[in-house]
Amino acid sequence: MPEGDTVWRACKRLNQALAGQELVRTDFRVPSLATTDLSGRTMQEVVARGKHILMRLSGGLTLHSHFRMDGSWHLYRPGERWRGGPEHEIRVVLATDPWTAVGYRLPVLELVSTDQESSVVGHLGPDLLSPAFDRATAIANVESDPGRTISEALLDQRNLAGIGNFYRTEVCFLLGLHPWCPVSDADVPAAVDLSRKLMKANVRNAAQVSTGVDRPGQRSWVFERAGKPCRRCGTTILTAQLGEPTRERVTYWCPACQPES
């Protein structure tokens, strides 16, 4: 699932291309919006809120989308071949004179009043990539359930928005936290600060890097490295499912660098 920095980059590209442009054609290919026509409206801005995308339009409307596992937005010039996937995976087309934005495999696509955006993103905690990031609230949110694992608490978008499996896994390694470590035993301020530091460092990169080495196969300490030697101590990296049965995530850790207390 794309994380906050990936969504932030997507919104920046969309905003640079579409902000201030009038929509000349729209084509929604989801039943709930099949008859919707937004042509004539101006795209005012495209902003990220955690992992959510908000396209604010003139007339007080916002088009809300979310990538979930494999959704994406692609930009094309007039006449350019669309390469985001087969046509049946297209969910929406937003065309301006200079650009066409095509949304592929978007599991969430809905229109809301701009003054009612809280109905779709109001449940989110502080956005790690926001200039107005509320550190104190984020820390308090995570610490509010001391018996929960630090892994689950960091992934909960109601606590703080933007962290996904990559950052949660790498932050736990870098801080020496076992994935099942309870919040009460973790240095929560350090985890929040490091999460934000890593995401901000990667926000303009095409790849997510936690090791400082932006080369294929060398970008992570433990993420997706099950069975391989720890880069720090050589111990074999382990993997397991973590979380409630309906919301399990794969986790990775070094049993030597992240000992179970």
UniProtKB/TrEMBL annotation:
Cofactors (names): Zn(2+)
Q: Which SUPFAM superfamilies match?
A: Glucocorticoid receptor-like (DNA-binding domain), N-terminal domain of MutM-like DNA repair proteins, S13-like H2TH domain
PROSITE patterns given for it? FPG_CAT, ZF_FPG_1, ZF_FPG_2
The family assignment reads: Belongs to the FPG family.
CDD domains linked: AcNei2_N (cd08971)
MF terms in GO: class I DNA-(apurinic or apyrimidinic site) endonuclease activity; damaged DNA binding; oxidized pyrimidine nucleobase lesion DNA N-glycosylase activity; zinc ion binding
Put simply, this protein is called DNA-(apurinic or apyrimidinic site) lyase
